[in-house]
Amino acid sequence: MALPKISETRELSDEALREAVLNTKRELFTLRMKVATRQPVKPHEFKHAKHRLAQLMTVENERMRQAAAANAAE
Question: Do 12 and 59 meet the contact criterion of CB atoms below 8 Å apart?
């Protein structure tokens, strides 16, 4: 499984972006709980989830900065 591309993330709407952030955080929590309860987990899933979360939050912050710059310009 390849790491997700940021271009796919940039195509999401604001609402879909927020939903994806929450889902990814839940996924990371679930993975941590599996490790804590000694259930089988694939270590690369942590890397993929963290990478995805970083991409989502980066795009979210970029959009917030663009909105703030647009408001400041008015």
Answer: yes
Residue 5's alpha-carbon distances to 9, 10, 30, 48, 55, in angstroms, are: 7, 9, 23, 11, 8
DSSP string, the chain: -PPPPHHHHHTS-HHHHHHHHHHHHHHHHHHHHHHHTT----THHHHHHHHHHHHHHHHHHHHHHHHHHHHHH-
| Token code pair at residue 28 | 């990371």
pLDDT at position 4 = 82
The stretches in the chain having pLDDT less than 50 are none
Distance CA 3, CA 52 (A): 8
